[in-house]
Amino acid sequence: MLLSVLKEWRAMPAGGPSLPWLLLGLSVLALGGQMSRAQTVAPRDQKVGTPAAPVVISLQEALKRAQANEPNFAASLANARIAGLDKSIARAGLLPAVTYHNQALYTQPGGQGQGIGANTFKFIGNNAVHEYASQAMVNEDIGLGQIAAVRRADAAAAVASAELEIARRGLVAAVVGIYYGLSSADRKRGIAEQAADEAAAFVKLTSQREQAREAAHADTIKAQLQQQQRERELEDAKLNADKARLELGVLLFADPRTPYTINISAAPAALTSREEVNQLAAKNNAELRSALATLNMSSADVLAARGAYLPGLAINYTYGIDAPQFAVNGPDRVNNVGYSASVTVDLPVWDWLATEHKVKQSVIARNAAKTALSATQRRVIAQLDEAYAEAQTARTQLASLDTSVATAAESLRLTKLRYTGGEATVLEVVDAQAAYVSAQNAREDGRVRYQTALAQLQTLTGTM
To answer: Cα angle vertex 384, ends 381, 385, to 5°?
Structure first.
């Protein structure tokens, strides 16, 4: 097409419309260049479009990503940072505040106002018709309330920090459960695939025995029913695995459909001794820290309420000008710059028992915080004992579950041999297949149980 256009353009007479044909030829040349570049780049685009390998996510990586994406943990982190800033603000309240004050004031002159001679003005509270103030002020309030506010802010920051740790540990427990739940779902899908293959092979075996007139048609029907059941179980296992993968993907990626794999050690972790668990729990329990910090915060409220019984002291120092002229020197070389200082003491006399009632309120709240601390101590002891017993029992049962799987596999093998030799019924084979599948699923549930109990114990002791 390009060659034909060029030939027609060259064949045009000298006086013909050469400009449109010239523009058309240039457009065709540009289009041809784009097509040639597209053909050159095509193989490179094919390489870029190859799907990348799935991301391998370890448990620690999953915890790190979940902390960055989970909204409740983000809210707890924000509260802890805000409480830290509140502590800094409360401490700043103990220090003098410095301001630079500027004001221009005009008062109606003349009439029967105040002043001397022509410099009369209406309002007695003002000093002149024109008044200018430009002053640096240092103010300091001293009282028990400011000290109590610092203590309360420190306790509130400790509460927020403990609550952040509690939120982190709760997130860890949730991620661990989902992570190992996904591993169990993947393994159960493999078990279901193996069971479906086993059922299909048994259907083939019963059909062959029926054709050889060594088994009844009822055996084939029973085997076919078992195969259909295993196929339905396989579909459910695939669905559960996909749901578990999406549930964990919500915490890990911006798009939960991102392909990834998990990496779990085949050998389960060892269980820590009880003495070490008790020592770690006594040092690193976030719930106890939160309850104790809440009690300290209530005690600071009591101190602040009782501080209203005491006098309040305020100190002010002012340096600058307050004169009829906005200048350092006024008329007749009068220096307008000066300073003043004041000390104010306010003595509380009567407030209709409001302070007394506030003290009673804070004491009631402190008593409730003491009760909550005692209950938290008892609950932590019980949770620690329960978590350790759960982990110990689950750890002990792992070997028994492995033995059950091996026994069920051997029972299935022997039952099939007996059925092939005509010594067992089809029901015995079906029961052996079901027992083998149940033993495998129970082993996967036992692994998840131990990993979850171990993670809960580690979160209680602060080691995860």
So the answer is: 85
Query: Taking the mean position of all CA atoms in its chain, how far away is CA 264?
Result: 23
> For residue range 83-124, what is the model confidence (pLDDT) as tens digits?
999 999 999 988 999 999 999 988 888 655 555 555 676 677
Give the Cα separation of 452 and 421 in Å (integer).
45
- The mean pLDDT of 32-44, rounded to a whole number, is 42
Instruction: Please provide the CATH number assigned to the domain covering 59-95+143-310+348-461.
Output: 1.20.1600.10
Q: How many CA atoms lie within 13 A of 228 on its CB side?
A: 6
Rounded Cα distance between 289 and 132, Å, is: 56
Which ranges in 93-143 belong to alpha helices (H)?
A: none
What tokens appear for 40 in the block?
A: 């050159």
Q: Which residue from 276, 277, 243, 248 is spatially nearest to 262, judged by alpha carbons?
A: 248
**CA gap 269, 180 in Å, rounded:** 13
Q: What is the secondary structure of 175-195 as a DSSP string? A: HHHHHHHHHHHHHHHHHHHHH
Give the burial class of 112: count Cβ atoms within 10 A of its Cβ; 0-12 exposed, 13-18 middle, 19 or more buried.
exposed
Element (H, E) at 312: strand 312-323
The residue behind tokens 């019984």 is 309
Here the tokens at position 227 are 């195969």
Average pLDDT, the chain: 84
Backbone φ and ψ for 457, nearest 5 degrees, come out as -65, -40
pLDDT at 212: 86
CA 268-440-172 angle, 5° bins? 40
Task: Give the start-to-end residue ranges of the domains of the chain.
Answer: 2-48, 59-95+143-310+348-461, 103-142+311-347
